[in-house]
């Protein structure tokens, strides 16, 4: 079953069926979207269908993550298992896992993915430069990190679009 349900004036809930659980109960993925109010009915229908198709494709491929239900820590562990362990050299993977477990998850792991903001990442990065934070010498902060901040903001923007 797939459905587009009007919720409010410009709000719609997209529902896609994605099989059954172990007890035979249907599993549904749902996503709410809000469309601009200044579009024509034809544009609204076209955009709704486009958003629904993208959502359905992501659910079918298994790439859809509900940012309101998953924390950054859960996401990064999923990323490690699904991508990093398959594509990275063992030494690189070891360094990534160490940094993730010792620094990133304790600082940011509790934040829900849809609540993670660029400011969280900037505060985390700035915190690494504070005295006594990097005693384990995993990371040495450079004086010129403006390009790194831009990368963090870009990554955060991509995560928020999930």
List the helices and strands and how they pair.
Layout: E1 2-6, E2 11-20, E3 26-34, H1 41-61, H2 72-87, H3 90-108, H4 118-128, H5 146-160
Antiparallel strand pairs: 1-2, 2-3
Helix pairs in contact: 2-3, 4-5
Short descriptors:
globular, 162 residues, alpha+beta, 2 domains, three-stranded antiparallel β-sheet, single chain
What's the short story on this structure?
This protein has 162 residues and is of the alpha+beta class.
Report on the structure:
By secondary structure, the chain is α+β, with helices and mostly antiparallel strands. It folds into two domains: 2-61; 72-160, no CATH class. The protein is 51% helix and 15% strand. The protein contains five helices and three strands, in the order E-E-E-H-H-H-H-H. The chain has helices spanning 41-61, 72-87, 90-108, 118-128, 146-160, and strands at residues 2-6, 11-20, 26-34. The protein has a three-stranded antiparallel β-sheet with strand order 1-2-3, covered by helices on one side. A hairpin with a 5-residue loop joins strand 2 (11-20) and strand 3. The longest helix has 21 residues, at 41-61. The chain is globular. 6% of the residues are buried. The mean pLDDT is 80.
């Amino acid at each position: 079953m797939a459905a587009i349900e009007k919720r409010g004036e410009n709000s719609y809930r997209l529902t896609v069926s994605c099989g059954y659980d172990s007890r035979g109960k249907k599993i549904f993925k749902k996503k709410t979207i809000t469309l601009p109010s200044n579009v024509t009915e034809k544009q609204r229908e076209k955009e709704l269908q486009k958003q629904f198709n993208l959502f359905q494709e992501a659910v079918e491929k298994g790439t859809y993550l509900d940012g309101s239900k998953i924390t950054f820590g859960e996401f990064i562990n999923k990323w490690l298992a699904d991508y990093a362990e398959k594509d990275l050299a063992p030494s690189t993977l070891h360094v990534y896992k160490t940094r993730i477990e010792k620094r990133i998850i304790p600082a940011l792991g509790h934040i829900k993915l849809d609540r993670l903001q660029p400011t969280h990442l900037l505060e985390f990065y700035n915190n690494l430069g504070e005295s006594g934070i990097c005693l384990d010498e995993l990371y040495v902060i450079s004086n010129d990190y403006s390009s790194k901040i831009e990368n963090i903001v870009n990554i955060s923007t991509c995560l928020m679009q999930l």
